[in-house]
Amino acid sequence: MTTKKSSAITRRATMRDVAEHIGVSVSTVSLALRNDPRISDKTAQEIKRVAREIGYRPDITGSLLRTNNPRIIGVAAEFSQELHAAYVSNIRSIANRHGYQLAIEDASFYAGYEEALERLAQLRVTNTIAINPCFPEPIPERLEPSVIIGQTSPCPTSSLVRSSNDVGMQELVTHLVDRGYRRILYLDGPKGISARNRRRAIEHAANVNDVWLEIVAAGNSLDDGFLAMQHVLCERSDSPTNQFKEKGIATAVVGYNDQCIQGAVIALERAGLRIPLDVAVAGFDNSSIAASRAFGLTSVDRGIAQVSEYAVELAIERHNNTKIGAKTLVVDSHLVVRNTTTPVA
């Protein structure tokens, strides 16, 4: 395969321009840009290089108008949540590997998920994945996602990929007990199914391990965790250190998610508490915050990679057969131990 010498293109570059520069067919270029496995890696890389060089950009709108069943998956998520952003990143990589493109809407920009899905439908994107959506009222069937990532599906036609809290939460509580912690202060999440299921999981794990559990209202953001922890510290008269080793019983703090517990950590450290010497802390989601060297937070991993794989597979199934029935797939969570829960001195 010989690449022809590039010449200036004053109009918008087309797929045919890419094909003529390389000396291949337009269909070969189309397949390569969709990451179709029938095209060799060497040829695909050369096609993509030339496409970048001459300024070719895929015409997604035109593709939607030209075909009745485009290889596009819509995604509705809330990018303010790091977990959602991580899911979208994984879904994009997996979808591209299968030759699909993504059309993404941030539900936090609109009044809610229904409006985000409506926007996707206006672009003729009907095969969608919604990440932990909330619908105050039933939505029209035409807007129901193909796949929902969350704890439950509010839409009867949607498949569900659910990350189970139970295994990871049990591992976390057992881990804390093994290190001498007999009390847990749990910073609860915002109202909703996700928080309710996570709360039930830690209540069950605490009961099984005979651990005293106190639940405090918080939320899912850094500020939520900071304010909730600050309130706990202010309403108790003992010194901060005594609060977390009451009558010799060590206490750990667990957050609804990693962002929440990050805020709690700031409040604890401002109060003069040392982590983990005075108090152990742990989060949920195993986000990049938790995994960072700066933070090194013990956290429960929700199996994001496997959840994303399942979600894309189910969306592709729906693309190939729109009449396929709804399915439910479950991925177990697991504990990742880092340096915020070392043994009690």
From TrEMBL:
UniProt-recorded Gene Ontology molecular function terms: DNA-binding transcription factor activity; transcription cis-regulatory region binding
Keywords on record: DNA-binding, Transcription, Transcription regulation
Keyword Transcription among UniProt keywords: yes
Protein name (database record): DNA-binding transcriptional regulator, LacI/PurR family
InterPro entries assigned to the protein according to its UniProt record, in alphabetical order: HTH_LacI (IPR000843), LacI/GalR-like_sensor (IPR046335), Lambda_DNA-bd_dom_sf (IPR010982), Peripla_BP_I (IPR028082)
Superkingdom: Bacteria
Pfam families: LacI, Peripla_BP_3
PROSITE patterns in UniProt: HTH_LACI_2
Species, as recorded: Arcanobacterium phocae
Record keyword Transcription regulation present: yes
HTH lacI-type domain: residues covered: 13-67
